[in-house]
Every structure is written in C-alpha cells, then in structure tokens.
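Standup, Tuesday
Yesterday: got the pipeline producing structure tokens again.
Today: sanity-check two examples.
Blockers: none.

Example 1:
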Amino acid sequence: MRIDIITVHPELIESPFRHSILKRAIEKGIVDVNLINLRDYAFSKHRNTDDYAYGGGAGMVMMIEPIANCLDDLHAQRKYDEVIYMSPDGTPFSQQIANQLSLSGNLILLCGHYKGVDERVREHFVTREISVGDYVLSGGELAAAVVADAVIRLIPGVLNDETSALSDSFQDGLVAPPVYTRPSEFRGWKVPDVLLSGHEEKIQHWRHERALERTRERRPGLIQE
C-alpha cells in the first residue's frame, strides 16, 4: 500500500511514522508513506497556499490551484483508490471504514488548514471525506495520522500476531473485553479464575459476555437489540 499525505506542515506528522508498528511496516516494505509538502506546488515566490475568502469573513482558505497541481502530478504517476479530505463535517471514522481502506492499493490523504479548502477541491477532486470526531483541530495532519495508523495496522504482515487486529475493539461491533497479565494476584486484586482455567471455550464465552456488558455500559449506541 502507498499512502500520500498532502500537507502544508509535513513536520507535524513525521514522528508517528518513525516509531513502533508504523516504522516497522515501512521498513518491511509493506506500506510506503509519503509526506508531500503542498507548498512545493505553489507558484508564488512566497509559496502561498492560502488566500482570503470571497465574500469576506474571518480566516483564510486553502487555494485550489496548488492542490490541483499536486493532485494532477500524483494522478499522472499512479492510480489512487481514494482521495480523502480530512474534514470535521466528513463521515465519522470507524473501524469498518479502516477495514475497507486497508484493502486499497494507493490512498491520498489531504490535510485541511485554516477555514478549510476551496469548495471546488471537494466537488471535483475528493472522493471521500472523513472526520475523526465532532471537534475542530488546527489542521488535518493529526487526523490523517490517526487514519493512517488505523489502516496500516490492519494490513497483513504489519502486526506480529496476525489475529491481533481481528480482536480489536469495534471489529465485531463491540468494545474489547477486560484484559489481564501477570501477576495473577496484586494487592489482593485477582485475575478472574476463568482466564486461568485453560478452558478455551469458557474463556471465549467469558470474553464475549464481558464485551457485551462493557459495550452496554460505555457505548450503548453500538448495540442494536
């Protein structure tokens, strides 16, 4: 998979791809992540990528020309499955969307800034808009890093345990059940006996029941009964 992230501040998201799981995925050649500086596609000597909004109002708007130039250049090199704009009013990001995107070959993540992008970008270039929550960030970089992380870890070969991602929260529509590790007793707090029993069927039943219980308590909207 190749993920191209278009941003005016590439330094904001360099770190997540230089550590841990994402770093190993890149080093293994499983995924190729490219941070593309939008300013490289600006024609003005000051490399401006934003301007005042027509009609007035506070805040600057990202210009269509640098974005179009950048996207044209990328599309001339390869075919992309999606051009995704990170936007507060996009479709709420979910594990199901991450699963879908993990099957892609090439993705573009466009990071907004200021008051957003010229609407013509959204109308003519963007194929999907994604939001990571009902709040506003200073830019789309952190949101793009979240999406990239969630997608990359699902690609076969990224995680050491191939079944690990399948047991993550939300994969089955539920949050994950409680987990424990050694020691089995600490300050009088004990690990549930069933987890020490070695009885796989009983353990799986316990985990499913705890996942249902926790989902009802914390995320009841996920359960349709």
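Example 2:
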Amino acid sequence: MSDLNTQRRQFLKTTLGAAAVAIAPGMLLFDVAHGNPQAAASGKVRWGMLVDINQCKDGCNDCVTACNKENGLSGGTKSTDPQWIRKISIKDVSTGHEQSLPMMCQHCEHPPCVDVCPTQASFKRADGIVLVDRHRCIGCRYCMMACPYKARSFVHEPLENQNPDVPRGKGTVEACNMCVLRIDNGLQPACVEGCQNKAILFGDLNDANSEIAKKIQSVASVQVRADLQLNTGIRYQGL
C-alpha cells in the first residue's frame, strides 16, 4: 500500500471515528445493551467452537433456527435478508462426496473486517469475539467485502419487534456475535444449545483443561481458509 493510501486510510479512521463519537458520545452498541461486557472480557480467554461435520446432518437447520430466534432475525434466505449463520454444502470434485456445515463469522484472531473499517465499528474483544458497534457503523460495507467467509449482512429495511438485548438498525452491517450476552451470563451460544445432534462444541480454546481444547488435541480439525493465517475461533472436524 502506498504512503498516500496509508495516510488517506488513517485520515478516514480519525475523522469518521470522531464524527461517530460526536453523534453518540460514550454510546457503544454493547455498552447500551449489555452493560459494557468489554470490561468483563479477559485476554486470558479465547472463546471458540468446534463443529463436527460428521454429526451435522444435511437438511438440518437447528442451529440456524436457534440463531434467528435468539437474535430476532426473520429467517429469510433472500440475498437482502440478514443471515448470521447459514448452512452450506461442499463437494469433493474427485469423489463426488458432499458435506453440510454451518458457516458463520469465524471470529478471527486477525480479522480483516476490523482492519478495513474506517470508523472502528468492527472490533475484537479481548476474549476473541468479533463485534460490530452499530452506533459507529456508517454502512460502507468495506468489512463485507473484506470477509473471506461472506459472514456479514447489511440491514436494508427498517426493523420491528426487535430483541431488546440484540439492538440492530437499518443501514448497518451485522454478523454472528457468538451470542455474546449469553456468554457474559455464563450460558452457551444459542446455536450450540439448539443443535439436536450435538455437532457444535463451545468453550475456551486457551484453557488446556477445557473440553474443546482437549478435543482439538485429540482429533483432526481444520480452519476454513487456513492459508489466510487468520487463526479463526471456529474449527471444523471431519472436513
């Protein structure tokens, strides 16, 4: 990147970020809804999930349904309908074997969405959860273009009957937040609880004694697009 582009990007971050603060001083999306969970987030923890593809059944949408219900999403599948988690199918062209898996924000250690956001609306908590502050989001959608997993959605229409714990807004970008409010209250994400096949394991990747850390050490697991070296918080077994 040239020096000129670097200076331009820094200028955008500074000016637009300041404007966002002026519009809503001291107000962050998760400050308002959750009493500032960032203060409770610890860098000693790295929340993550291990998805067992062998247990993820084709045609099953339990995780999607649970996510939609928890976060007040319509459940529509049009290109303009927000989807925080979606089921996708992949096919081995050499064997014809197909597998079904859930795709959501991968909660990268090095999130591209955060890097390109000019207003710092996209940010990563100390515990690895990647979030969007809608009060800072200007709807530029740079983060959507930067995400290699197509995990972010843009809210095109006014919203009604929202879940007060998950405030959303027209003209902003949103994505899976790993059910951050539930986590901060000692619960598991909705998709984990909603999966009848127990295909999703949630826990602290940094805790060697946690169930998920032990499982990752004992089975083969992969990151989607590991070549990008983003160190995702979502891992897949059997892929």
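Quick observation on example 2: The chain has one domain: 3-237. Strands lie at 47-52, 85-91, 98-104, 122-124, 130-132, 152-154, 173-175, 200-204, 221-222, 234-237.
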